[in-house]
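Contributing: when you submit paired examples, paste them exactly as shown. First protein:
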Amino acid sequence: MKRFLVVLALLTAGLVAAPSGQVRALPPGIGPENNNLTINSNVVRGVTWPNCSTAEQEYCWEMPSVITPDGVETVMSVGALADPNQPQAGYVKGTPWTYCHNNDIESRANCLLDGNDWIEVQLTGEFTEQEKANTYRWKLRTGKFSPDIMMLSDAQRSVVAGNATDGFTLEVWAKPALFAYKNNCMMPTCGQNDVSERVSIKIQGYATMLMVGTSMTRPSVATAAQRDAMRGIFISTNAMNQSWSFSQDTFNVSATSPHFLPDGRTLTPGFVKVFLPGSYVLQDRGYTDISQVKPEFFDLKVSQASATAKVSVLNGGLLVDTGVEHFSSPNPSVKLKSAAETLAAQNLAALQQNSSAGSGPNTVPVGNHVKTTISGIKATITVTLTAKGTFTVYRKVGKKLTLVKKVSGKKGANKVITSYLKGYSFVVKDAKGKTLAVRTTSVRFARFY
């Protein structure tokens, strides 16, 4: 099912790539236009958001903190503008740097809060190699802008809360990451022989609001329910040029950097990870619990070759490490198969094994027999009798049998419908306690929701 398509890209510090691929410098805007805004205020493009000073204020940032490797968290003293003529450089390192725009470098119009504009998510300054071990935490109050999907360097966690009536918030935990830069090293021309001209350790990215409807130029989903399920997804990478798209239930990530660091010998270290919140796994992909998901349930390709995902449970969702370790252009794609595909296939294999155990590998039972059909979380047990009589249906989990139903059956087909979960099989016994032969089992590939 095609859900939506989006192509957005970023980066060098202070640069944003337009959807067409043209790179434009965005002048940092400092001014009073976005000061003291509330939920119903208009927010101006290209002007940085201030520190929040009141409980009612929106389109602002709350004071960040730094968490050391041993877990000690300290609120940072940031936000002092040292040089108004060099805004970003003038801020104390670690100051949140956020504003909305749509790559129109001169526009100071009101931000569009329907998915046409997006917001920068950054902390100012250059970090040190030692500071890469720290985690930096901060919160943005984004008002009516819903920060549905984020792309941010070494993101560790994000929490999206609130609503358009009271205001959304985006809380971020991220580590600084090394970026390697070379002029004109763009997709798809940045290749195996490119050597970076400089490196920088930064925290930088952006967040996108999903439209509801159809758009070929901006991220969109068919329904508000789909948007809500996907809210909180993030993609983390340290690629110099980044973009992502999503269609046919697949995340396609373009990640490009020079192949070598400035010494010309060391490969540029890289990573691409995709976080899928529990809401997406359960509501969109149809699983009943994230623990059901296994690495083999992902279709993962790196440099157009199949790969095995490294999957870990993180903050109620799944973090998918694509295995990318260096650049230039690995461009991974990630798809979590639906529960209807993965669990139904497992169920079929288990039921076929049970069938073989009950009837023998080459026998076709005659007389009274049983056919079990699985459709999602529903099981239909069809018991065919040569004459009317009583039979009993049991659910088997491991070695334990649990009564499902006792039936006074007619001659011919008798159906019993019950619930089905992974690990269930069914046993049918006649009035004398003899187990009836299993003739066939089948699974219909249907969604669970």
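Second protein:
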Amino acid sequence: MDIMFVKMPDTDRARRIFWAVTRRQVRIYWSVGAGIAVVGALMALIGFASDGGNVGPLGFAFFVCGVWILCTPWLLLRRVIRRAGSQSPPDAATVRLTDDEAVFETPLSQGRFNWPIVKRIDECDGFWIAYRDRQVLFSLPQDSMTSEQITEFREFLARRF
């Protein structure tokens, strides 16, 4: 396998990668946040309606904490997009995929990843994400590759992983 293509900088790709990598954690956050918000709203309603002492204000505090937990993924997403826009190289990266390694080159830097350190590669939303255990190593956008290159890389993945 010898695939070479140019990976253009794209902040929308950073957003899609963030959601693909954190999808499970975000769903857990939303479930916990919604549960705390509902319990807090019920406590506040019951406490304020029946003059239950501290139950109303405590319920309101739970409600606010639940809403905050629900909003956390969106706040993190905005931060990731801002950082990706400011830290992404202005130049395109040349990507070369061989049977031995994946090489990323820009005019200022070069990164090499040997395939044995890659434990798995997930395909989602128009790109591949390479992992080493739980750590994200790199992403490969499918929109920068030709259909022949995509087919060749999928065959490589079927043999390798």
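If you have annotations for the second protein, write them as plain sentences, like these:
The longest helix spans residues 11-49.
Strands lie at 2-7, 93-98, 101-105, 110-114, 120-124, 127-132, 135-141.
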